[in-house]
Model the fold of this input.
Amino acid sequence: MKFLITAGPTREALDPARYISNRSSGRMGYALAGAARHEGHDVVLISGPTALDVPAGVDFVHVESAQQMYDAVRDLCKDADVAILCAAVADYRPVAYSGQKIKKTADRLIIELEKTPDILGSMRSTFGFGGVLVGFAAETSNLLEYGRDKLRRKQCNLIVANDVSRPDIGFDTRENEVTLIFPDREEVLEKDTKEHIALHIIEHAAALRP
Ligand code: PMT
Done:
């Protein structure tokens, strides 16, 4: 099967020196790419900036911004049987980019932000993706309620929900604990290395293909 996987953070530039981003290390997404390859699948990994090595045998596309990730996913998802969107895409970006470094003159600086394009939300409606769609949900409360809401609104086959308020799992950690939210049931994958969690997610995602 052909897997498309997104990983890492995006960077939304303010000026040539500064950007808005988040704490994603890319480990969860890279573990998914490695696990899918290990299981014999073809994999394209679309990733924001990370310090990680690309797993062997995986096709790699580097992006910086949410818009670049949106464009890459739109162009490449047509070939995929399964798409797993694990990237921590910035939800907002600066409205204006300053070509010159912003000078430190004012005591207060107000930056206006606008929403970035919703990649997961575009998969069915705009990109016409017909394969197995797996989204992630990074929540700090109401994990099941918010995850189930995403599953429905974004027309996913599976949502992988993790509690990112915990310091031992989620962002920039070696381990994760997730709840798999299917339309008709839930399954908890107890705390384990991201590599082991990834293998289970890949097996579940592959089994969802008709
Ligand atoms: O990279 P690590 O350090 O290993 O950390 C892993 C992780 C915590 C980043 C990962 O497990 C995770 O939870 N990824 C999703 C992070 C996220 O942005 O969640 P969200 O609930 O805000 O977004 C929901 C879904 O919409 C995600 O599939 C996300 O990729 C997608 N999204 C979000 C915003 C946007 N503009 N477009 C999107 O497609």
